[in-house]
Amino acid sequence: MRVSENFRSSFRALGHSKIRTFLTMLGVIIGVFSVIMLTSIGEGVKQRIASEVESLGANLLYVFPGRIQMPTMSQTESRLGARAGFGPLGTANGSLTYEDVLALKEHEDISAATGILSGADILDKLNLLVSTTGVDEDFFRIRALELRYGRYITLEERESKSRVAVIGSEANNEIFDGHDSTGKTFELNGVGYEVVGVLQYKKVESMGPGAEDLNVKIYVPVSEMLDRRDDWSVGQILVRAASPKAVDSAKRSIEGILRDRHGVVDFTVITQDDMLAAINRILSVLSAAMGGIAAISLVVGGIGIMNIMLVSVTERTREIGVRKAIGAKRRDILIQFLIEAVVISVFGGILGVLLGVGGSAALARIVPNIPTAISFTAVAVSLLFAFAVGCFFGVYPAAKAARLNPIEALRSE
Amino acid sequence: MVEIESLYKSYSNGLNVTEVLHDVSLGISAGEFVSIMGPSGSGKSTLMNIIGCLDRFDRGSYHLEGLDIAEASDNRLAEIRNMHVGFVFQSFNLLPQYNAVENVELPLLYADETPRAARQKAGELLEFLGLGHRLNHKPCQLSGGEKQRVAIARAVVNSPSLVLADEPTGSLDSKTGSEVLEMFRKLNEAGKTVILVTHSREIAEEAQRIVHIKDGVVSEASHAG
Ligand SMILES: Nc1ncnc2c1ncn2[C@@H]1O[C@H](COP(=O)(O)OP(=O)(O)OP(=O)(O)O)[C@@H](O)[C@H]1O
Ligand SMILES: [Mg+2]
After folding, report:
1. Which residues contact B208 (CB under 8 A, 6 or more apart)?
2. Which of A103, A185, B109, B148 has its CA 20 to 30 A from that of A87?
3. Tens digits of residue pLDDT in A376-389
4. Residue of chain A with shortest Cα separation from B96
5. Domain range spanning residue B88?
6. Residue B105 in contact with residue B147, Cβ under 8 Å?
7. Interface contact flag, A318 B93, Cβ < 8 Å
8. How many CB atoms lie within 10 A of CB A159?
9. Is the pLDDT of residue A214 over 90?
10. What are the C-alpha distances in Å from B136 to residues B5, B83, B99, B133, B173?
C-alpha cells in the first residue's frame, strides 16, 4: 500500500474516535506546552539580562580584587556541580587602591576609570544606617545616570575631598520630601553633606544589573569616604575603554599596569563580554534543566499513547484480520498503526507549541517581571522529541498488530 | 490449480492436540466449480483457510498454481491472498467504518494501485453487480444480500483466478442465497475456479463436483448430478 493511503486510513481511524484521540494527544500537548513555557522563561531571563548588561555600554571593564575564576566552557561542562563561578564580589582584600585608579586614568586606551567603594553611614535625620557609595567624577561619565536637579560630583570636589552628595530620587523623597534639594545639606554621622545633584527616578528591573535600586543611592566623593578610613583600598574599579574596539587592549593594559604596581596578579579584569558569556552559560544550563524536567511529562504522554494504541490494536484485531485476508502485509499494518501513534504525538506537539507560544506571550504580558522569549531550538527540539516519543511508544503496539496471525485475528470477536 | 498431498493440520491448546485435518489429498483443476460438504466441525473451514493461504499447515504439501505454499514467506502469502485468491466469508467481514466502494477498493490499494484508479474500478464493479446506488453506504446500512455482494466484489476486484467461499449463503435467506449462488456460477462461467463450502445439498449440487469431509478426512469426491 502506498504510504499516502496508510496516512489516510490512520487519519480515518483517529477521526473515528475523536475524544479518545484528543485525550491521548492531551498528554503530549501538556508535555510540549510545559517544555516551551519553561524554556521560554529561561530564554527570556537570558535576553533580559543580556540587554540590561548591554545597556550599560559595550566598552566597560570591571576590575575586582583577588583572583576570580570565570567559568569557561570546559569548566561548566566538566565541573557543573563544582563552584566554578564568581568569587565574592567586592569583598576588598585590600589589593586595589585608589592610586591604582589614578594610574589607570592616565592610560590612552582608557577613557574613564572610577573606584567604587561601598560604605554604611548613619543618616542622622532618620537615625538610620544607610548604604553610601563612594565614586569619583568618572563614575557619572561611565554610568549615564540621568539628573533631575543639579549636577554630578566634580574632579575638584573629589580632589578636595568635599562633603557633597548626589542622591537618588527615593532618597530625596525621604530626606527632603521630594523637592529640589540642591544646595541643601543633610547629616551623615553628625557631619553635614551638601546635595549637588538629584537623580531622575529609574524603574527597578526584576533581574540583571537593572535590579540595583539607584533611587536609594547616596553617592559621595570616593576620596572623602576613603579619608574617613585607614586604608586606600577600593572595592571595585569600573573602567571604560576608549572605544569598543579598544576593550581587549585596555584589558591587557590594565593587567600590565596593575601587575607592575602590585608585583603580583591579585586582581581580575572582566570585560562586558566575559560577564555576558558567563551569565549565558549558567542560564543555558538552568533552562536546559527546566526543559528536561518538563520533558518527563512528555514521556508520560508517550506512555499514554502506547496504552491507547494497545487498546486500539485489541479492539481492531478483526479489522487487522480482514486487512490481512485481502492482502495487507505486515509492513502495511505496522505503518498504519505507527502513523496513528506518530500523528497523535506530532499533532499534540504542534498544538503544544502553539499553546506554549501563546501561553508564554500571555505570561509575559500578565506578569511583566517574568520575561519570556521563544527559542527556535526549544520549539524544534520539543517537536522532534514528541515525534521520537510517538515512534518509540507506537512501535510496540504497531509491531504487535503486524505480527497477528490473519486467521486468529479474523476469529476474534 | 490446487494440489494438496497428504496434508495434516492440528491445533494445540497447551495440553491436548486436536488433529483437524488428517492426510488430506485433493486436486482441483483450473475452471472447476467444487463444493465441499461435511458435518459441523469436520474441518471444512480449516481446509478452506489453508487453501486461501490464511493459515499454515503442519505436514504435507500444497501447491497453488504450481507455487509451493509451504515454502512461501508471510509476505509472499499476503501477495497471493491479494492477487490470486478471493475469499468470501459467511459473516461478510466488511470494515464497518468504510462504505461499500471503500471496502471494495482496499485490495486494489494493497496492490499499490493509485487511489483514483482503485476508486474507479471498485465503483464500476459494484455498478456491474447492481449496487451502483449503494456505493456510499456503510455495511450497517446494507441488507445481508447486499453485504455479501459487496464482499464478493471485494474478493474478485483484483481478478483472482481462485474464488473461495465459506458458507457464503449461511447468513442469508434462501432467495438472496440463490442470488448470491448465481453470482458464483457466473464467476465460474467467466473462467474462475470456485470452491464453495455449504451445508445444503441443494446448493452443493450446483457445483460440478462435491467433496465430502468427515473428521478431517476427505472421504469421497463425487460428481454431482
Ligand atoms: N483455533 C483453534 N483452536 C483449536 N481448535 C480449533 C481451532 N479452530 C478450529 N478448531 C477445531 O477444529 C475443528 C474443525 O473446525 P472447522 O472450523 O474447520 O469446522 P467446520 O467444518 O468449518 O465446521 P462448521 O461447519 O461448523 O463451520 C473443530 O473441532 C474445531 O473445534
Ligand atoms: Mg466452518
Report:
1. B32, B33, B34, B223, B224
2. A103
3. 988 999 999 999 99
4. A319
5. 31-57+75-223
6. no
7. yes
8. 12
9. no
10. 44, 25, 5, 8, 24
Q: Which protein residue has the closest C-alpha to ligand 1 atom 3?
A: B11
Among the candidates A265, A296, A327, a domain finishes at: A265
Mean pLDDT over B191-211 rounds to 92
- Global pTM reads 0.78
Q: Identify the closest residue of chain A to B49 by CA–CA distance.
A: A407
Query: Are B112 and A1 inside 8 Å of each other by CB?
Result: yes
Ligand 1 pocket, residue B106 CB under 6 Å? no
Q: Are residues A34 and A172 in the same domain?
A: no
Please check whether residues A302 and A360 belong to one and the same domain. yes
Work out how many CB contacts closer than 8 A connect A with B.
69
CB contact under 8 A, A324 and B81: yes
Whether residue A229 is contained in a domain is answered as: yes
Q: Is the CB of B214 under 6 A from ligand 1?
A: no
- The region that residue A86 occupies, defined by phi over 0 for left and psi between -120 and 50 for alpha, beta otherwise, is beta
Domain of residue B99, CATH code: 3.40.50.300
Q: Each residue of A183-205: b (16+ CB within 10 Å) or e?
A: eeebebeeeebebbbbbebbeeb
pLDDT in tens, B86-142: 999 999 999 999 999 999 999 999 999 999 999 999 999 999 999 999 999 999 999
Structural domain harbouring A102: 96-265
Is B46 near ligand 1, meaning CB less than 6 Å away? yes
Which of A318, A331, A407 has the CB atom closest to B55's CB atom?
Answer: A407
Q: Is B11 in the pocket of ligand 1 (CB under 6 A)?
A: yes
Residues A215, A325 within the same domain:
no
Which residue in chain B is spatially nearest to A12 when comparing CA positions? Answer: B97
Q: What is the pLDDT of residues A282-306, one digit of tens each?
A: 888 888 888 888 888 889 999 999 9
**B89 interfacial to chain A (CB closer than 8 Å):** yes
- pLDDT band for position A75 (cuts 50, 70, 90): very low
Asked whether the CA dihedral B170, B173, B174, B177 is positive or negative, the reply is: negative
Residue A78 lies in a domain: no
Distance of residue A400 Cα from the nearest chain B Cα, in angstroms: 15
Hey, are the CB atoms on B110 and A318 less than 8 Å from each other?
no
Last residue of a domain, one of A265, A287, A312: A265
pLDDT digits (tens, 9 = 90+) for A134-182: 998 989 888 878 889 999 999 999 899 899 999 998 889 988 888 888 8
A241 and A385, same domain (yes or no):
no
A234-265 per-position pLDDT tens digit: 888 999 988 888 888 899 999 999 988 888 88
Task: Please tell me the distance between residue A401's alpha carbon and the centre of ligand 1 in angstroms.
Answer: 24
Residue B73 Cβ contacting ligand 1 at under 6 Å: no
Give me the residues of B, 32-51, that contact A with CB < 8 A: 49
> How big is the CA angle at A413 (ends B56 and A400), to the nearest 5 degrees?
60
Residue B223 pLDDT grade (very low, low, confident, very high; cuts 50, 70, 90): low
Decide: helix, strand or coil at residue B67. strand
Tell me, yes or no, whether A296 lies in a domain. yes
Tell which residue, B157, B72, B152, has the closest CA to residue B109.
B157
Predicted local distance difference test score (pLDDT) of residue A333? 95
Grid coordinates given for B109:
490499494
Q: Report d(CA A1, CA A6) in Å as an integer.
A: 7
What is the residue with the minimal CA distance to atom 24 of ligand 1?
Answer: B40
SS3 A241: strand
Nearest to A16 among B97, B107, B154 (CB): B97
